[in-house]
Amino acid sequence: MLQHVIDALAGLPRELIVILIAALPLVELRGAIPVGVALKLPLLAVFVIAILGNLLPIPFLLLLLTPLRRVANDWPFIGPIMRWAERRALRHRESIEKGGFWALLLFVGVPLPGTGAWTGAAIAAFLEMRFWRAFAAIFLGVCLAGVIMAILSQLGLMVLTA
Fold it and tell me: What digits encode the pLDDT tens for the residues 109-151?
């Protein structure tokens, strides 16, 4: 799937490709950093633009998911998607409520499938966390995930070129 995204973005500036991939749900900066490294961009530049790209949709998700959920729950196409997203996000409710800021930061920051800024923002919105508290936890979590992915990408590059 990631190769299809890269092929679709071919011809765009390499930095813009990294930003757009980082902004995608599920892929996020976990996919964007390895792509940026593979595109031979400087690691620091990849790190910064992947974080910016990953954070682009977050304020909108934090501000709009809760009101959209209330309004769109009965809409034919959007309602089932919103209910699915809410069920998926709220599976982590207990641990996030218990650990608060730090739990959300670690949830976003550990680069595992199903975690990340999009899911973290959905959880925060559905739990109606305060915007700045949620955004700060997500920002720091994205930075943590960026550090982990940058290290893994560099190690992978070293192994492939050795």
Answer: 998 888 899 989 988 988 889 999 999 999 999 999 999 999 9
Rg (CA), the chain: 16
1: exposed, middle or buried (Cβ count in 10 Å: 0-12, 13-18, 19+) = exposed
Burial track 86-113 (b if 16+ CB lie within 10 A, e otherwise):
beebeebeeebeeeeeebbbbbbbebee
Q: Taking Cα atoms as reference points, which of 53, 51, 50 lies closest to residue 38?
A: 50
Residues 6+ apart with CB under 8 A from 50: 18, 19, 21, 22, 29, 32, 33, 36, 146, 149
Classify residue 115 by burial, with Cβ atoms within 10 Å: 0-12, 13-18, 19+. Answer: buried
Report the C-alpha gap between 61 and 63 in whole angstroms.
6
CA dihedral 11, 15, 21, 24 (to 10 degrees): -120
Q: Which two structure tokens, joined as six digits, stand for 162?
A: 């050795």
Helix or strand or coil: residue 91?
coil
Structure tokens at 95: 């641990």
